[in-house]
């Protein structure tokens, strides 16, 4: 079964697409990409070519006549801030649930119901969904968790990987690989080894997507797509996108960044796309000068969080094969996990700073950006007790603010930097610290984050995508678009933290 054979991207409209995206008809470049044409592509293009030079031609009217704006179909919802926040979130699941789709424009139809984040994001998103599921687990909605896992397995089967989201314009990239953790979450609900074994082919297929080309690497060709060979022969991973054109959903913005950059435009576009695959779009983590987006070098970076996630997949595959009695495969993946752990500790740990950093493999040195990606080695129990102690101290002194944890210690105007705090990174930090018995610090983080979420909810009636943790009286900001409400992963993490 392949439900998305007839999908397309609005970039196929060529000159018309560019004219609309550069015209500021919509405040957000994503909006037009999610529109549905009312007629066949050729009919619309012919009409545009005939009309565009007429004296009374108005592009906005043309768009209204020939495209259906999907945002007008969104369900009406008014929140009631007098309700307890957990009750509010529990009621939001139905608002954010989308039923199995028919083929509609750029939307890749999925066979089972799923949760969308909300706001401008009216499709499923890969790594968001794990943190949303944490809340669904509290609400005992294992039916929805299973549906979403099934949808992701379907995408791995039909596309070869899980795209950034179920839109055609996201197919060239993925997002942080949390599928294995989702399956484990589902298994906690249904018990036994049934789930983890059922999804083994999909876990393995996704792993091969990330490791594609590893065997081809050499001293002369140290990188290919998402794999990078270190001088000692060890292979680690980076974020990547197979395309080097402007992102359709950020077409105008990407052109402007490339225009400002001294680097080749194609390189800029690929690095912007790779940062979108990271989920941290955008952050000082990916910037050569740590401040300006036009200096973006995502593909030069070996991210510590991504490699921790790949370590976890290798460990999980080793464990499944052990359960199945396949000792050869068990030992193969266990060895891969061991080699990766050793490499992460060797290149990402900075002893003088007492923290884990990303690694620039072109310069062969750790980067200088302190970010909460450095807590992933605690979440996946890769760090030594001494390293965990130093990370905990750094979190307490440099990251912990009045409203929770800042994402990085730098303020750049990008949304994945200070003063913003994000739900997924609070969960990773909270759990990572607890695993090394830093209970008081973890609880402090938990309490501050809950208080920030509740404060914004009381003031606005909303759960939002990100929060200003330096001054919780202000809303989170920065980035390419306004702060969104809804909001899938904020709901999930808060609901789970309220029950911890």
How would you summarize what this structure contains?
This protein is mostly helical.
Order of adjacent strands in the largest pleated sheet: 5-6-7
Rg calc: 22 Å
Shape: globular
Largest sheet: 3 strands, antiparallel
**Which segments are poorly predicted (pLDDT under 50) over 5 or more consecutive residues?**
1-5
Helical run tally: 19
Structural class: mainly alpha
N/C terminus separation: 40 Å
- Assembly state: single chain
Kindly state the percentage of residues in helix: 40-55%
Q: Please provide the count of β strands.
A: 16
Strand content range:
5-15%
Features:
19 helices, 500 residues, 3-stranded antiparallel beta sheet, mainly alpha, disordered N terminus
Description:
The protein is mainly α and 500 residues long. Helices cover 47% and strands 7% of the residues. The protein has a three-stranded antiparallel β-sheet. It has a three-stranded antiparallel β-sheet with strand order 8-11-12. A two-stranded antiparallel ribbon has the order 1-2. A hairpin with a 4-residue loop joins β9 and β10. It starts with 14 loop residues before the first helix and ends with a helix. The model is unreliable at 1-5 (pLDDT under 50).
Write the layout of secondary structure elements.
Blueprint: H1 15-21, H2 29-33, E1 36-37, H3 41-51, H4 59-66, E2 67-68, H5 85-96, E3 97-98, E4 114-115, H6 126-138, H7 142-159, H8 179-190, H9 194-198, H10 200-211, E5 223-224, E6 227-229, E7 235-237, H11 251-260, H12 265-278, E8 301-302, H13 304-323, H14 327-347, E9 349-350, E10 355-356, E11 359-360, E12 365-366, H15 376-379, H16 385-399, E13 400-401, E14 404-405, E15 420-421, H17 423-435, H18 439-460, E16 467-468, H19 488-499
Antiparallel strand pairs: 1-2, 3-4, 5-6, 6-7, 8-11, 9-10, 11-12, 13-14, 15-16
Helix pairs in contact: 6-7, 6-8, 6-19, 7-8, 10-13, 11-12, 13-14, 17-18, 17-19, 18-19
């Amino acid at each position: 079964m392949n439900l998305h054979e007839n999908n397309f991207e609005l970039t196929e409209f060529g000159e018309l697409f560019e004219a609309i995206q550069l015209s500021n008809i919509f405040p957000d470049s994503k909006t037009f990409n999610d529109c549905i044409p009312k007629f066949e592509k050729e009919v619309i293009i012919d009409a545009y070519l005939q009309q565009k030079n007429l004296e009374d031609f108005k592009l906005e009217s043309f768009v209204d006549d020939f495209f259906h704006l999907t945002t007008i179909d969104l369900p009406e919802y008014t929140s009631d801030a007098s309700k307890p926040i957990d009750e509010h979130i529990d009621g939001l699941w139905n608002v954010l649930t989308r039923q199995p789709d028919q083929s509609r424009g750029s939307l890749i139809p999925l066979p089972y119901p799923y949760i969308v984040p909300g706001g401008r994001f009216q499709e499923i998103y890969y790594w968001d969904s794990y943190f949303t599921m944490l809340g669904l687990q509290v609400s005992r909605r294992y039916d929805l968790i299973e549906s979403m896992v099934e949808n992701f397995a379907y995408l791995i089967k039909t596309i070869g990987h899980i795209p950034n989201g179920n839109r055609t314009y996201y197919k060239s990239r993925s997002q942080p690989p949390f599928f294995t953790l989702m399956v484990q979450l589902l298994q906690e609900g249904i018990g036994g080894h049934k789930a983890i074994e059922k999804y083994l082919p999909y876990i393995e297929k996704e792993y091969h997507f990330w490791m594609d080309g590893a065997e081809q690497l050499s001293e002369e060709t140290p990188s290919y797509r998402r794999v990078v060979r270190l001088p000692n022969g060890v292979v680690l991973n980076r974020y990547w996108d197979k395309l080097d054109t402007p992102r359709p959903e950020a077409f105008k913005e990407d052109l402007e960044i490339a225009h400002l950059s001294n680097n080749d435009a194609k390189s800029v576009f690929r690095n912007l796309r790779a940062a979108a695959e990271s989920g941290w779009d955008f952050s000082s983590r990916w910037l050569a000068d740590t401040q300006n987006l036009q200096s973006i070098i995502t593909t030069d970076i070996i991210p510590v969080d991504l490699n921790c996630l790949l370590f976890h997949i290798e460990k999980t595959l080793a464990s499944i094969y052990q359960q199945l009695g396949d000792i050869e495969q068990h030992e193969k993946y266990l060895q891969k996990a061991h080699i990766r752990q050793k490499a992460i500790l060797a290149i990402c740990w900075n002893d003088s700073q007492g923290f884990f950093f990303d690694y620039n493999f072109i310069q062969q040195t750790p980067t200088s950006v302190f970010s909460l990606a450095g807590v992933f080695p605690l979440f996946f129990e890769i760090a030594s007790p001494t390293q965990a102690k130093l990370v905990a101290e750094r979190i307490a002194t440099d990251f912990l603010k009045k409203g929770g944890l800042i994402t990085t210690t730098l303020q750049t105007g990008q949304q994945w930097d200070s003063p913003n705090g994000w739900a997924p990174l609070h969960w990773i930090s909270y759990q990572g610290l607890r695993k090394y018995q830093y209970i008081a610090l973890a609880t402090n983080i938990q309490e501050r984050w809950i208080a920030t979420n509740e404060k914004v909810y009381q003031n606005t009636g909303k759960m939002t995508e990100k929060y200003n943790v330096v001054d919780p009286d202000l809303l989170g900001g920065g980035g390419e678009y306004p702060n969104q409400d809804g909001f899938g992963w904020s709901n999930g993490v808060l609901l789970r933290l309220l029950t911890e």
